[in-house]
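User: I'm new to structure prediction. If I give you an amino acid sequence, what do you actually give back? Let's try with this one:
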Amino acid sequence: MFKEFLLKQVIKRQLKGMPEAEIDRIVELVGKNPEFFKKIGDEIKVKTKAGRSQQAATMEVMRAHQGELQKILTGK
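Assistant: Good question. You get back a string of structure tokens that encode the predicted 3D arrangement of the chain. For your 76 residues, that looks like this:
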């Protein structure tokens, strides 16, 4: 529960202005799939350390995992 609270606070800070319901949904998805989202974060970190911008690295990694993300988001 405390871990979920911290995660929610971090997400709120990163996504200022996002509706509370969306933040709750993101926290729930990350809570159900922590290894997957850690893997994405690690890949983004590697690409940014290699010189890519945060945005470019994120887009590249998200495209690479698009199929998995769609499954998670649709619950299939």
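You can read the tokens as a compact description of the fold. Here is one thing that stands out. The chain has two domains: 1-32, 34-76.
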